[in-house]
Known about the structure:
The protein is mostly helical. Helix content is 66%, strand content 0%. The protein is elongated. The model has no long low-confidence stretch (mean pLDDT 84).
Amino acid sequence: MTKLGRPVVMSAENRRKEIFFIAEKLFGEKGFEHVTMAEIATEVGMSKKTLYVHFSDKRELLKSLVASSYIWADHAFTEVDSDAIESLKYRLKMVAEHVLSERHIKLCRLAIAERVGIEGLTDTFYEMGISTSRNHLIEAIQKIDSKYCVLSLEPHILADMLFGATIGKLFIDLLLVDLDFEITVINDQIEHVVQAMFKSNC
Length: 202
């Protein structure tokens, strides 16, 4: 007969991920104001008291949830190619994949809807998301020798142009309406736009 041991204890990190998953689902279905901490705790399978150990209130939970959406994968901004232009394409594709994802769009909508009642919510989104991804694009452009740049513009302007020409409009469209799109089409567009703005160094 097999002995039953103690149940596996979930790590604090995994527990937070589970709370985020349930909270995101409930906020999306009912709206932030109509969800209680007690309801989140019940859905997660913990006491309300335990939930308050992790988050002091519902507003802190939402801010942490928004921040968690910008924990980039380790490989997102690594150098994958010795060719600086190819590396820029890769970074832009990683930004597109994240920014245009269904989860990110839903959290953006939630952050915008709740920004009036929760101080610093959209600031968190801006600093961890838009600012971070933009800085990574600028950094990648700075590694490209200026002789390969078709346009004689500052790296931050080129980064904004790249984002706008490949991701920006679709991102705004997705915030307003649900649309079907193929990430492969966006990746092809990234290839064409980068090739138009930078000469091949081959």
